[in-house]
User: Fold these one by one.
Assistant:
Number 1:
Amino acid sequence: MLGALAITLGKVAAFVVLMLVVGRRVIPWILHRVAHTGSRELFRLGVLAMALGVAFGSSALFGVSFALGAFFAGMIMAESELSQQAANETLPLRDAFAVLFFVSIGMLFDPSVLLRQPLAVAATVAIIVVGKSLAALVIVLAFKRPKSVALTISASLAQIGEFSFILAGLGVSLKLLPPEGRDLVLAGAILSILLNPLLFALLDKILPTLAAREPPRQPDAAAQPHAVLVGYGRVGRAVAEGLKGRTPLVVIEDDLERADALREAGFAVIQGNAVRPEVLKSAGLDKATHLFVAVPNPFEAARIIEQARAANPKAAIIARAYSDADVALLRQAGANQALIGEQEIARAMLALAPKRKAATVH
Ligand code: AMP
């Protein structure tokens, strides 16, 4: 038994190494060559042939399951720069296969397990919905993420899907799992998928209260005269670059990953939506000399500016706008200046134009 397991593990390891070494180079290379022919059909056919080829080849050569082979084929293709195109091209096929997949899962499911083993089904659902999400909650909190993020991630993980069916099927075929085990996994998956929207509905109710109770920490830079930048996107990035060395800066950024990257790059960052009063407040607005509102939505910008103006009547507030109507809205909310992107481009173009009138040739 142990010997057989060791051989299987050895084969899987050899398969993974071969896939990582050869697959990383060969598959992207083929994808590029096929893409350069310019034929969409050929590209779609190539992706399909490679996916099925790797899946079949791996099951024939290494004895791993067809599904595991296909999974690795997908992982390898994801490495290629053309992966998005490959995914788009195969989307209709994926939907068709997904339907077939779920039909076959439905045929495997024996509903009588709900009556025969109600306790075992309840325990399986509890492991998935409570156990798995609790583990996720602990891990996310251990990484010092906000409770709201931890709860959202655990609710997202409070279900199992197709990969568990593949593993259960593999377990049964290798005689590691009794067939009843697969029925329990299937029942657990179906029930946990049904319960998931309810969990999210509950989360929607809890999150606003939690967010209000969890005010963001005020960065040290906010205690002295400083500038505040809201939104570190295409506009905000350039503003932050230009402010380097001129004034201490506090950035408010809603996007979690972007905020993390900024923090790692040494910025004083508050992660959250600046429309929320507690987020804006933690930027130390009373000490701010300048507020740069570089978010794309003018209505959000206006709400941010109104609150900022109420907190600090003296700060210079500069906002991003798209139209004259935006400028009027933002000025009315309390902005000192609202700049329209297109007009600034024209201004920059003119700055590059000849300074003096060139001699005209008739
Ligand atoms: P861009 O459109 O490329 O200039 O990006 C706008 C940036 O502003 C993105 O990084 C958004 O996450 C961020 N952002 C948009 N709205 C808000 C908001 N209300 N509070 C904080 N950050 C925001």
Number 2:
Amino acid sequence: MIIKVLGSAAGGGFPQWNCNGFHSSRVRAGEAGYKPRLQSSLAVSANGDDWVLLNASPDIRQQINETPELQPARSGPLRASPIKAVVVTNADVDHITGLLSLREGQPFTIYASDRVLATLNSNSIFDVLAADKVKRTVFELDKPTRIEGAGTDLGLIVEAFAVPGKIALFLEKGGADNNFGSRDGDTIGLKVTDSKTGKAFFYIPGVAEIDPPLADKIRGADLIFLDGTLFTDDEMLTQGLLNKTGKRMGHISVSGPDGSIAALSSLNVKRRIYVHINNSNPILDENSEARKVVEASGWEVGFDGMEVRL
Ligand code: MLT
Ligand code: MN
């Protein structure tokens, strides 16, 4: 199984279009130690020919242009794409809007929770994906699903499971209870298994905490790509970027007693890679103390174009 990181940044990318914060301004200026990053998406393939996208980011056109594996073969038919399915983990802008660029008559299958598919179904702009060609399939949570697309079994099994998280920002309602209308299925994690080899990895780009059921699920895994949005919960406030904590946005932090380094320290996950990294996160600076802490803890910082074979 081949896994490619198409975009390692959180929503907005790195640099973000309107951000002049500490890190965005430095990466924009081309300072050493920084890499630009596109928005949150992975691609996975069991056979190297047929690909499944895990989230469809607003940068999808650039991601396809930078990834030959995702382009139509030169010798292929007039209309073709190696992208046969798209799995969506929540309805956030950074994860669904790339679907619009996959218009309009190319056959593929979208997989998502009932909650996320309801959001797509209620927004008529997604009807640019022709209903007779682009299938929308609801994941039954906690049940392994064989992924198919354009009539082919893609050799991948995905188990989707609800994780602690939040409804998409643009769907938030009220706020008095600090829940904003979030329910199970608004944010899912994925276990992706190669049906031939049995090798598996986890992809969880958004998660508010590693609660005991999630810890049990990922214990002993070979590989995880995990939510690396923020290093510390209040960093967007202290950098003057946004009046919100990570918890308020449904994201666990990397550091601290409740952070992901601590939460996974005893779970024996062999390879741990951060993705969905926000422009405020000091791990974006290869020379930062935060980066040293992460690497000394056995974590890797995902980057665009990163390839992992499992
Ligand atoms: C998130 O991951 O919290 C969202 O992508 C934020 C957003 O939609 O701006
Ligand atoms: Mn996001």
